[in-house]
């Protein structure tokens, strides 16, 4: 699965996944967790990290960026419209911005690396 991927970049891009696992562990002790939403987020993060860490494939990198941007944009949009919140509103906006920035930085790194070859 990771033969044509940058392994350090893949594990770095999984930081949101590690954070999600931590939130789920803390959430189990505090109250209930929406497991379906957590599972969908975890799978999306893994697919996006895999896509952004792929070598020499701008299309797959774009898909990874789109997934990170969609997840971040969804957090920001739903927080501002008060439709669904997973935490305090400032926290959701910060996490959404961080997801978008992680995707953009990884995508720009891939473009620069691809142009260098």
List strands and helices in order, with pairings.
Layout: H1 7-13, H2 15-30, H3 35-52, H4 58-80, H5 89-116
Helix pairs in contact: 1-3, 2-3, 3-4, 4-5
Give your account of this protein's structure.
By secondary structure, the protein is mainly alpha-helical. Helices cover 79% and strands 0% of the residues. The protein has 5 helices and no strands. The radius of gyration is 15 Å and the shape is globular. 24% of the residues are buried.
In short:
This protein is mainly α and about 120 residues long. It has helices at about 5-15, 15-30, 35-50, 60-80, 90-115. The protein starts with 6 loop residues before the first helix and ends with a helix.
Features:
117 residues, mainly alpha, 5 helices, 79% helix, 0% strand, globular
Q: Could you tell me the radius of gyration in angstroms? A: 15 Å
**What is the H-and-E element order?**
HHHHH
- Global mean pLDDT: 87
Low-confidence stretches: none
